[in-house]
């Protein structure tokens, strides 16, 4: 049977039921996917995604005596750390010194909603460019792969499309042959290939070119408005992590796959 590759620009562009049987990669490059991968690479015990701020507060009350591992409230609204929370959504905050062994209760504007939308899939992974090769290696051989972009405030975002294209490109490189692609999957792959061509022409690395192009994306512009310029550079770095976060909808936990 042919190996399939699909891309969905927003969760609302695909029904939850249509993801059944697929390996779904949830992508929120700026910044939830990158932050989750960074946190687990730094030794966080788990990340539990929630849709609303109130859900995080209630979960903290319920889970406080469940384990000796510390609980940390984490996430953002409007690109800013939520008042009273320990951490925001900048991956640079998630160092081993701060999060090692911790259980992170996490909510963001876009990424955590995309994770919940994928709950019926055969497997749910969290993808970005930081874990590009490790993720693509874990996808090899899967019959059907769906790249699910979180978008920005319910709008299609180019940053997620570029990350989806990078994943598609690396996966097909590793497998040594093209997959049967949907039209959106073909489109995101072309976008990433165009970025690579531009990078070569300008003598830049893929990471350097991506950091430049992120400044003109919807999510990138939002971060620049609130002074999070460094997050664009951080989230553009290719292959800095060798972890593959996996989301288990039944337990509500993201851990290392």
Automatic annotation (TrEMBL):
It comes from the Bacteria. The keyword Magnesium applies. Pfam families: 2-ph_phosp. Its cofactor is Mg(2+). It catalyses: (2R)-O-phospho-3-sulfolactate + H2O = (2R)-3-sulfolactate + phosphate. Keywords: Hydrolase, Magnesium. It is an enzyme of class 3 (hydrolase). Its EC number is 3.1.3.71. One of its GO terms (molecular function) is magnesium ion binding. InterPro entries: ComB-like, ComB-like_sf. Signal peptide: none annotated. Belongs to the ComB family. PANTHER family: 2-PHOSPHOSULFOLACTATE PHOSPHATASE-RELATED (PTHR37311:SF1). This is Probable 2-phosphosulfolactate phosphatase. The lineage of its organism: Bacteria, Pseudomonadati, Planctomycetota, Planctomycetia, Pirellulales. The gene is comB.
């Amino acid at each position: 049977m042919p190996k399939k590759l699909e891309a969905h620009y927003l969760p609302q562009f695909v029904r939850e039921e249509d993801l059944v049987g697929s390996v779904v990669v949830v992508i929120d490059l700026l910044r939830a996917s990158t932050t989750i991968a960074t946190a687990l690479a730094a030794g966080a015990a788990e990340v539990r995604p929630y849709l609303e701020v109130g859900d995080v507060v209630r979960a903290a009350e319920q889970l406080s005596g469940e384990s000796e591992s510390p609980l940390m409230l984490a996430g953002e609204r409007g690109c800013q750390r939520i008042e009273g929370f320990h951490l925001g959504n900048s991956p640079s905050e998630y160092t081993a010194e701060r999060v090692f062994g911790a259980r992170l209760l996490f909510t963001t504007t876009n990424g955590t909603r995309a994770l919940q939308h994928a709950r019926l899939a055969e497997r749910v992974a969290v993808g970005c460019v930081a874990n590009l090769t490790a993720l693509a290696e874990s996808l090899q051989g899967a019959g059907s792969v769906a790249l699910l972009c979180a978008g920005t405030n319910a709008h299609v975002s180019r940053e997620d499309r570029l990350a989806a294209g990078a994943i598609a490109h690396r996966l097909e490189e590793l497998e040594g042959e093209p997959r049967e692609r949907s039209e959106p999957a073909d489109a995101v792959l072309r976008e990433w290939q165009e970025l690579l061509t531009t990078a070569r022409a300008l003598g830049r690395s893929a990471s350097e070119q991506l950091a430049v192009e992120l400044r003109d994306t919807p999510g990138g512009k939002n971060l620049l408005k609130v002074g999070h310029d460094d997050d664009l550079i951080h989230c553009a770095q290719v292959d800095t992590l060798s972890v593959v976060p996996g989301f288990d909808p039944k337990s509500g936990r993201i851990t290392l796959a």
